[in-house]
Every structure is written in structure tokens, then in C-alpha cells.
């Protein structure tokens, strides 16, 4: 029998409700199993910025709901997530808890309310193990840019877990939590999912509320699940999804026409692979494609290559705007100098890390009056054109596939050149630019320096076609 902390959501929910007393587990036993492993492994991996004490009232309430199900003549009412310990990325507000976005700027900020996704999880009876490490303000691709130290990959502690939701992915991979929530700006759920050998879903933009989530790039950000299986991702997604009056960017179900067709054809933009995909990665990708049982068709998306430049221009611009409020006067870390200008300079220099300062400066530049036409507006136009090309591609194929990342997890400190780090996002940023849903599924391992490292296959579907991702994801998962 699996250890309790190694269970999936589905397995844990079944064990909590087992008819046989010898097979049944309690909510407290499940919590303790995850909490103990989290505390034991965290000093080495630096996954959690804070591991929460047990919320006795929440544990007792979850157990009561499950017990009432067992004696109810009307059947089960307690959701699948009732009593399930989850890890939460440190940019999602949990009332009363510190939420720092892994930045000194917010090191002592306590959330005064719950994010909408947290409210939904609490309503479902879910429990929260702790807040996970991340790249500061969700800016990066490795979780090396945290103000509170680097998170390490459970498969090889000399390597990164991916970013920016690296802490959440590592927590799931190391069985420190049953599942986790992350946020995805340009692959920030799917990148660490690939590097850590777990499942990561970026939903359609607007399907999940961002209320109570610290903004990085408002037109890209989405909250999504990081789980051990595709079915767990579906369960968590179905719990947090839905239109929200507190977030005007959320969309109703059925805004886009529902795609009910069977998945028969997978499109692959192979022109994107040249020069960045190694032979072993291509071999794993080809093998995973074959296991889908679909007809594989090469497609062209001309705007995909310049899309990376467009993505980062928009990213820098929105980061500069969103972080303007953290100035030492209105929000965040405050230092005082001899003049008002010194106050601003000291507060932001001390409060922000190097990568954050870089993006604020570049964003201010691309939005300046002399350069907004040359850079920002062209990037927005490129984004629109890319979306058109994806929509056209989906008239010919049912789903689009690439590797999630060009490489397995790289060594900590290896990508010290920012540009080389940005290039890692070549495949994942496309779904954020178009607002389409995408998922990363483990597709096996490749060897680096004697270590077997996980890698992922990446599927993109039309808007609001998450069901297609779960369907093809389940097919690939069953062949592993």
C-alpha cells in the first residue's frame, strides 16, 4: 500500500471514505503524513517558505463532512477535495497568512482576505499545508529569483525545479502535499511540472478568477493546478473555475463554442525545434506522440518564432505598471533617506531583487513616449496575429503538441545570462499570448550526468477546451 502522503487526490478521497475500517484513513492521519514529510524534506529542498500549523477546526470539519456522508441515505455531499492537504503558491492570498510573493518588498504582509480560489477550496473542505517558494513576483523560469533562497529539484538537488511555481511543483513531486496551486504567466505551471515530473494545467485565460492573486502580468496570469495525475488536475480545476464578480476578466462558461469532436489529429510545429531540441528530447516527444494514437501532422505557425520577443515586451511593460505601487510610500518595504527621491530609490532597491528591477526598468523603457510605438504596440499586434494563426491551425488539427521545455531541468546557476533563461520559454509562452489552455504531462526521462531527469509533453487546445486536454493527457499518462 502507498504511503499516505504519496496518494493522489482520487486515492486519498477513496481511502478517507473506505467502507472497510481497516482500509479507511482519517483526515488527521493524512494531514500528519504530509506535514511530517514537508517538515523533514524542507530544509534540503527549500520548497515551503512557511509550513502551517494544523488548523484543528478545519480538520475536524472536514472529517465531520466525510463521516456524515457515510451515514447519509441521500448519498455523498462532501467534495473530493474535502480533507485533502494542498500546497499554495506564495502569491495567492490566504486570510491571516503572510503572502510575500517571495519578495523582501512584502516579507511581512499578512493577507486581509482570501483569494477567490482559496474561498472555493475552503468551501470544498481542502486543507493548506503551507505557502511555497517561487520566483519573486512570479518573474523567472527557475525559482532561483526568490528573496528567500533557491528551491531544489527533488530528482537532483543540484538542479532547479523550474519556475515560477517551482515550490508548488517540487512539493507535489516530493510528496510533501497531495496537490498544489500555482500561477502561470508564460509557462510558470507547466515548466516546473515538466522539470519535476508532474502534471501542470494552465486554464483558458479568464476561466479561473485572479481576485486575491498578486499580479505579475495581468493579461497573461492564470491560476492552475499542479498534480500527480491528469484526473487530479481535472478535479482541482473544476473546483476553482468559474466566473467571479470580483474579477472583471473572468468569462462565463460557453463564451467560446464548445468543441465536442473526437481528438484525431495532432499538429506539431516542428520548425520551432531547430537548434534547441536535443536528440533524446525529440525521441521522447516522438514516442509520446505515437502513444496518443492520433494522426500527427506538421503545421506552420509563422508568428510563433517572433512570439518570444513579443511576450517579453508585453511582460516587461505590465510588470512595470503592476509593481509601480510598491514604492515605499503606498505599499511594501519602506526605507528612508535624506530626500523623497532617496526614499523611493532605497525602498525599491532594497525591496526588489535583480530580475524584478531589470523587468521594471525594461518595461518603463518600452512604454516610454519615444519607444511605445516601436516596441509595445508592435508586440500587441504580433499577439493578435499569433492568436489568428492558432485559430486557423485548429481548423486543420484538433490539438497542438510540442515538448513542454526544450531541455530537462538545468543546474542551479547555469542560466546566469537572462537571455538564455528567457529562451527556455519558447514553447510555453504561446498559450499565454493566445489565452488558450495548455497542459504538461510527463513523457518519461532523459539522462544528464548519470541522473534520470523527467521531461514533459505539452498540449494546447482551443479556448475553453480543457476537456480535450484531459482526454489526451489521460491517454498519454496510461502508457507511462
Description of the structure:
It is a single chain. By secondary structure, this protein is of the alpha/beta class. The chain is built from 15 helices and 11 strands. The protein has a domain at 4-240: Amidase signature (AS) enzymes (Alpha-Beta Complex). The chain has an 11-stranded mixed β-sheet with strand order 1-3-2-4-6-5-10-11-9-7-8, with helices on both faces. Strand 7, helix 8 and strand 8 (295-298) form a beta-alpha-beta unit. Helix 9 crosses helix 11 (354-366) and helix 9 packs across helix 12 (372-393).
Largest sheet: 11 strands, mixed
The first-level CATH class name of the domain at 4-240: Alpha Beta
In CATH, the homologous superfamily of the domain at 4-240 goes by the name: Amidase signature (AS) domain
As residue ranges, the low-confidence spans are none
Our measurement of the CA-to-CA distance between the termini, rounded to an integer number of angstroms, reads: 20 Å
Number of helices: 15
- Provide the helix percentage: 25-40%
Overall pLDDT score: 95
**Which structural class do you get from the secondary structure elements?**
alpha/beta
Task: Please tally the β strands and state the result.
Answer: 11
Give the helix/strand layout.
Layout lengths: L8 H8 L10 H19 L2 E4 L4 H16 L13 E5 L26 H8 L3 E6 L33 H8 L5 E6 L5 H7 L2 E4 L19 E6 L2 H11 L24 E4 L10 H13 L3 E4 L8 H16 L17 H12 L2 H13 L5 H22 L5 E5 L14 H6 L5 H6 L3 E11 L2 E10 L5 H13 L2
Parallel strand pairs: 2-3, 2-4, 7-8, 7-9
Antiparallel strand pairs: 1-3, 4-6, 5-6, 5-10, 9-11, 10-11
Amino acid at each position: 500500500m502507498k504511503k499516505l502522503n504519496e496518494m493522489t487526490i482520487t486515492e486519498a478521497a477513496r481511502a478517507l471514505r473506505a467502507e472497510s475500517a481497516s482500509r479507511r484513513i482519517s483526515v488527521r492521519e493524512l494531514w500528519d503524513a504530509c506535514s511530517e514529510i514537508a517538515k523533514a524534506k524542507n530544509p534540503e529542498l527549500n520548497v515551503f517558505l512557511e509550513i502551517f500549523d494544523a488548523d484543528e477546526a478545519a480538520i475536524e470539519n472536514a472529517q465531520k463532512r466525510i463521516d456524515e456522508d457515510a451515514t447519509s441515505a441521500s448519498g455523498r455531499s462532501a467534495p473530493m477535495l474535502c480533507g485533502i492537504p494542498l500546497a499554495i503558491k506564495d502569491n495567492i492570498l490566504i486570510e491571516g497568512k503572510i503572502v510575500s510573493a517571495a519578495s523582501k518588498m512584502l516579507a511581512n504582509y499578512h493577507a486581509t482576505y482570501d483569494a477567490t480560489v482559496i474561498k472555493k477550496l475552503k468551501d470544498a473542505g481542502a486543507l493548506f499545508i503551507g505557502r511555497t517558494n517561487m520566483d519573486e513576483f512570479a518573474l523567472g523560469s527557475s525559482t532561483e529569483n526568490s528573496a528567500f533562497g533557491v528551491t531544489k529539484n527533488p530528482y537532483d538537488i543540484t538542479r532547479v525545479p523550474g519556475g515560477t511555481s517551482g515550490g508548488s511543483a517540487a512539493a507535489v513531486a516530493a510528496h510533501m502535499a497531495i496537490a498544489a496551486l500555482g500561477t502561470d504567466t508564460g509557462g510558470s505551471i507547466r515548466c516546473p511540472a515538466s522539470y519535476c515530473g508532474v502534471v501542470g494545467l494552465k486554464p483558458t485565460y479568464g476561466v479561473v478568477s485572479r481576485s486575491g492573486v498578486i499580479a505579475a502580468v495581468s493579461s497573461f496570469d492564470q491560476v492552475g493546478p499542479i498534480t500527480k495525475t491528469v484526473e487530479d488536475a481535472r478535479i482541482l480545476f473544476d473546483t476553482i473555475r468559474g466566473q467571479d464578480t470580483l474579477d472583471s476578466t473572468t468569462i462565463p462558461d460557453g463564451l467560446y463554442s464548445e468543441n465536442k469532436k473526437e481528438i484525431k489529429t495532432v499538429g506539431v510545429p516542428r520548425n520551432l525545434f531547430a537548434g534547441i531540441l536535443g536528440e533524446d528530447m525529440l525521441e521522447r516527444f516522438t514516442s509520446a506522440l505515437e502513444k496518443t494514437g492520433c494522426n500527427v501532422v506538421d503545421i506552420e505557425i509563422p508568428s510563433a518564432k517572433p512570439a518570444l520577443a513579443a511576450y517579453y515586451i508585453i511582460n516587461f511593460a505590465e510588470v512595470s505598471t503592476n509593481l509601480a505601487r510598491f514604492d515605499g510610500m503606498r505599499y511594501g518595504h519602506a526605507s528612508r533617506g535624506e530626500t523623497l527621491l532617496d526614499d523611493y530609490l532605497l525602498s525599491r532597491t532594497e525591496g526588489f531583487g535583480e530580475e524584478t528591477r531589470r523587468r521594471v526598468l525594461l518595461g518603463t523603457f518600452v512604454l516610454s513616449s519615444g519607444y511605445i510605438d516601436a516596441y509595445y504596440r508592435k508586440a500587441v499586434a504580433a499577439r493578435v496575429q499569433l492568436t489568428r494563426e492558432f485559430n486557423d491551425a485548429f481548423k486543420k488539427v484538433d490539438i497542438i503538441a510540442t515538448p513542454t521545455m526544450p531541455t530537462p531541468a538545468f543546474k542551479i546557476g547555469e542560466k546566469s545570462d537572462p537571455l538564455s533563461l528567457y529562451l527556455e520559454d519558447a514553447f510555453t509562452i504561446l498559450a499565454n499570448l493566445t489565452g488558450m489552455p495548455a497542459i504538461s504531462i510527463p513523457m518519461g526521462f532523459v539522462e544528464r550526468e548519470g541522473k534520470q531527469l523527467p521531461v514533459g509533453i505539452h498540449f494546447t487546445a482551443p479556448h475553453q477546451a480543457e476537456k480535450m486536454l484531459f482526454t489526451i493527457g489521460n491517454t498519454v499518462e496510461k502508457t507511462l
